[in-house]
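Raw record, unedited: ABC transporter ATP-binding protein
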Amino acid sequence: MPGTNGGPATPRGAEADHGGGESPADPGGLVIETRALTKRYGKHLAVDRLDLGVPEGSVFGFLGPNGSGKTTTIRMLMGLIEPTSGTARVLGRPMPRAARTVLPQVGALIEGPALYGFLSGRDNLLRYDSADPAADPRTRRRRAEAALDRVGLTAAAGKKAKAYSLGMKQRLGLAAALLQPRRLLVLDEPTNGLDPQGMREIRTLVRELAAEGTTVFLSSHLLDEIEQVCTHAAVMTRGRLITQGPVADLAAGARGRLVVTTPDPGEAARVLKERGVADLVVTEERVTGEPPGKDAAGRDTDLADLNAALVAAGVRVRGFGLERASLEDAFVALTGEGFDVAG
């Protein structure tokens, strides 16, 4: 597992796991499970009693603004730092105690890859592979070439890593995580530094890995990235878990935006504002806004009444309805905060 020190991550003080009655993750169970996981740095509470469950076979998005506790959580899960309190289990075993059993089954890219700048991309992978005691040296070069090809770095394999762009370094770190088949892949902001085409390629690769049976745990501050590739997600803010579940369910929990198509957008916006529609956006023949919540009697506002009000005011309504709620809508509804959508 490429860690932060240029080689496989082996936590200090990690002991070999001799069983102790622990069983591996059951098929269809949880590959990551935390209970009240907490990390403090002095008076700063970085992660606050986190209860997280990552289903086997999922592409799980770990979503939150920069500084929300995502990387700290990942470092605890991988045994790189000790929690202040609480527990973490990965592949059914306690971390960090079972690190030597668990980590060979996990590929990870955390806080960017640690590379030897004076070595080529290919030689970096060969060095990573040689540090794995389970890796067959007879097939080392074949594995390295396959990993380079998978992340689109074959043409640059002979170039020294110090000459790589940030995006190329991210790709090389991902290739290192893919040298061996993994049950779990943990990626911390994997599209950092990539151009739009590179981001699409990484999303495609993640989908392929999931189709092959690998569980992918993907942290990001980009809502659009999570919504496009993930089956499940958890939302963090200020070190606390706000919600988690299937992405479709999270989005379904928020109301979509009201959309009115009309050649009279100015008048439509005036009427909608009077009726409590917020966050209005007016374009040439389209008005969108946040539907009003409950009326004075505590009842949900009837959208048909809004449509009737527009017609009564002489607005020529060509289209009227709700757009499907996005993950961004759900996040704003849960936290009241804005968020990066696509970087």
